Amino acid sequence: MKDSLLLFIDFEFTMPEGKENPIGFFPEIIEAGYFAVSGQKVIEKFSSYVIPSHFPHLTARCKSFLKITQQQVSNGMAFEKLIERLSYLNKQAPTTVITWGNMDMKVLKQNCAKLNIPFPLHGTFRDLSMEYKKFFGDRNHTGLWKAVEEYGKEGTGKHHRALDDAITTYHLFKLVEKDKKYLAKPEPTTIGERIDLSKMYQKFAT
Q1: Which of 31, 68, 154, 201 is deepest in the core (most CB within 10 A)?
Q2: Within the chain, what is the greatest distance between any pair of CA atoms?
Q3: pLDDT in tens, 123-143
Q4: Which stretches make up the Exonuclease domain (predicted)?
Q5: Strand pairing partners for 49?
Q6: Half-sphere exposure of 141 (CA within 13 A, CB side)
Q7: How many helical (H) and strand (E) elements, i.e. helices and strands, does the chain have?
Q8: Looking at the chain, which runs of residues are DSSP E strands?
């Protein structure tokens, strides 16, 4: 690939039963989705459940919130295989990783550290939610699907499905980039700025 790679990633994580984490608990990736684009071409889209290594049994809260089953996750891919895919893809071209929020990369780094696996992604990292917040001057962070709705659009597929959220992030990225380019264009000069009106006034005054 000659062009740089835009890699839109979303993960879903395990959750404790209550709102507070029990001793030793940390979130693990249980569903991964990414959408890779180079230029205007879709290079790859990927979706898979992922088997958690340390806390393999999902809590009722996690299954209810994500509408996910224990069997789906237990039949998923090993975390190490996910890392291999991400690492291989990242090596194909200079990569910009784009996520909605910073939790995806934080949890990925933590999961890699817990299993003594090198972090697979290198390049530029962009938090689109932070860019959206700064661009529109919002005080608070906006949720992914709410941000899409503010553009008068709809999210792709179902919310809290990793690949659907990754593709929704891609579509929102295009909308924000389009607005940035539009606002960056210099305002066209007025007729008065292109014509020296003082000379015209002198001509008609004589």
Answers
A1: 31
A2: 93
A3: 999 999 999 999 888 888 899
A4: 5-182
A5: 31
A6: 10
A7: 9, 6
A8: 5-13, 29-38, 41-51, 77-78, 95-99, 124-127
Q: How many CB atoms lie within 10 A of CB 100?
A: 27
Structure confidence at residue 188 as a pLDDT band (50, 70, 90): low
* Tokens 């972090």 belong to residue: 119
Is 160 one of the annotated active-site residues of the chain? yes
Distance CA(65)–CA(21), nearest Å, equals 16
Distance (Å, whole) CA 100 – CA 170: 10
Six-digit token string for 5: 């790679």
Annotated catalytic, 12? yes
Domains in the chain, start-ordered, CATH in brackets? Answer: 5-205 (3.30.420.10)
Q: What share of the chain is helix, strand, coil (3-state, %, to 5)?
A: 45, 20, 35
CA-based nearest residue to 9, from 65, 94, 66, 89: 89
pLDDT digits (tens, 9 = 90+) for 39-57: 889 999 999 999 999 999 9
Annotated catalytic residue: which of 44, 131, 159, 160?
160
DSSP label at residue 85: H
